[in-house]
Amino acid sequence: MKGNSLALLILLSFLTSCGKVIGEKNSAPRTPDQVGIIASCTSKSEAQAIAQEFGVQYRVINEKRKLIEFIGLTQSELETLLPKSKFRSNKIYNDVLISGDFKSKSVANYEFYGAHPPTYRNESSGRYFPHLEQIKALQNKFLGEGITIAIIDTGVYYNHPHLSPNILLNGLDKHGSNADNQDSDNNGFIDDYVGWDFYNGDAYPIDDNGHGTHVAGLAASTYMGIAPKAKILPVKVLSSDGRGDLGTIAAGIFYAIDRGADIINLSLGGTAGSQVSAELQTLINATRTAKSNNTLLVAAAGNGGNDGIGDCNDNLPVYPANIQEENLISVASVDAYNQITEYSNFGGATVHIAAPGGDVYTGGLYSVGIPSCFGPCSQDDIPYRSSMGTSMSTPIVAGLAAVIKSANKTTSPKKIRDIILKTGTKIPQLEGLLVSPSVINVQMALKELLL
Ligand SMILES: [Ca+2]
Ligand SMILES: [Ca+2]
Ligand SMILES: [Ca+2]
Ligand SMILES: [Ca+2]
Questions:
Q1: Confidence band for 277, pLDDT divided at 50, 70 and 90
Q2: Nearest ligand, measured from the Cα of 312
């Protein structure tokens, strides 16, 4: 969530002139206060009737899951129109914000230009990723082959040379110049070749912020990913300035489940006011649907709220991290010395384990960035950036989950969580702060799995 950049704001000189724009947006970009109200368990015909009678707009977010968004209706109006059980608030909560130096960008819907030849990290590659050594991730046996990690975030810059070989492609739907404006695989989303953008309502979940790209890289880039051969499913649910809401996040989770995600990374979160119980229930339902589909959720514990000083999630729940289901892991951040970072939330009952997240003293984590030039002109443009936060720790754990599942495809989400929690490197100073007072250890997790 936090993204204090130690690195060089290489992205500030963004150019809009290079590359061609492909694809029309289904709806104009919305500012957070224009976001509509999401109703679940609502059929298209019900939605149509309401929209006609009251002269408002609606859009189907997920037909199979009966998630409909109404635009132009207030919360109370919708409550009177639909049974209470169907009403879902879609209010924006400020603390769902991703803070830090990730900056909003105006980014066009570039198509996927195809996979670059994969470049894997090696000893002579000249870049150093100390967090990989810290968690004993430098192994070459199980690299996430055959496993899909959905990145539910600000989008993913899927044309990055270190990400493009790992983007999960839809075998039936195509976008860009091959789009046919048909939902060819009948999953409710037209031409969703590389994923879906729930924020703008289009088939181009390109990252207009940088956060989701950095997160994707830590999990599964060919170069610094924990699982460098796992597939990445980009799902955009946050705006270019990192705002979102629990209802749209739930819609993103349902989509990822339907696309066959094994692991869902949620480097986002916020505290839910008492009035969001219905919306939160949708998110809990999505988590349970994931469980019945053998999908693991990995969620950031949070970065301490407005003051940036870590809070206790046992007292002040952060969602989705605090959803109590066996297929969800909540992740805290440690620095390079395995000590909890100043910003990291914690909770001896609700935050499960820690992973490196960087801090201002020991440095941020390097991963991939969005380029200053989008499109085919950037074939040789390989941007990196450094960031810190529980957002960074989370995909590291998601990557480990992919490594474990690639070693044994039948491992259940609960079993994956049990192994990760059991095999972490125990750190005395984390005692009482986390369910498992430890930092993940890839080597020991694999050893335990393969016993
Ligand atoms: Ca199609
Ligand atoms: Ca489709
Ligand atoms: Ca888009
Ligand atoms: Ca705080």
A1: low
A2: 4
pLDDT bucket at 212, cuts 50 / 70 / 90 = very high
Does the pLDDT of residue 6 top 60, yes or no? Answer: no
Q: Which residues pair with 202 in a beta bridge?
A: 197
Contacts of 112 (CB under 8 A, 6+ apart): 158, 159, 164, 167, 169, 175, 176, 193, 194
Q: Which ligand is nearest to the CA of 303?
A: 4
CA distance 226 to 130: 12
Predicted confidence band of residue 141 (pLDDT cuts 50, 70, 90) = very high
Q: DSSP class of residue 40?
A: S
CB 317 within 8 A of CB 284: no
Q: Where are the domains of the chain?
A: 36-89, 92-449
Q: Which two structure tokens, joined as six digits, stand for 300?
A: 């950031």
Closest CA to 373 of 6, 114, 12, 7: 12
Q: Is 163 or 282 the better-scoring residue by pLDDT?
A: 163
pTM of the predicted protein model: 0.83
Question: pLDDT by residue (tens digit) across 55-84?
Answer: 888 888 777 767 788 877 776 676 677 664
The CATH code for residues 92-449 is 3.40.50.200
For residues 46, 48, 54 and 56, what is the CA-based torsion angle, rounded to 10 degrees?
Answer: 130
Read off the pLDDT band of 373 (50, 70, 90).
Answer: low
- Rounded Cα distance between 49 and 412, Å, is 42
Known catalytic residues are: 153, 211, 391
**Residues measured by CB to lie within 5 Å of ligand 1, the ion:** 173, 180, 182, 184, 191
Protein residues near ligand 2, an ion, with CB under 5 A: 173, 183, 185, 187, 189, 192
CA 345 to ligand 4 centroid distance, Å: 8
C-alpha 144 – ligand 1 centre gap (Å) = 28
Residue pair 394/334 in contact by the 8 Å Cβ criterion: no
